[in-house]
Amino acid sequence: xxxxxxxxxxxxxxxxxxxxIALRLRRLELGLSQRQVVRLLGLSAHSxxxxxxxxxxxxxxxxxxxxxxxxxxxxxxxxxxxxxxxHERAHRICARDxxxx
Length: 101
Known about the structure:
This protein is mainly alpha-helical.
């Protein structure tokens, strides 16, 4: 089964979602379960990885680095999406705070 999803034009908007899709697709390409990846990364629960893959949470930088290495992703590819997601989140927070004043 081939999963062809263009990470740049994901159905839902936002870099956090695109990062999650990229993580999930690469994990599946390698035939790894969430539990396997969690064990290899030394995380305490696979629910964290699920949250990252769904774009519900932005993973910490060290986890993104570890995922790039573990999943043999292009160096910096996941980090680039993480930085974009953090920028988008900061922009949303600033816009919300500005709207309140």
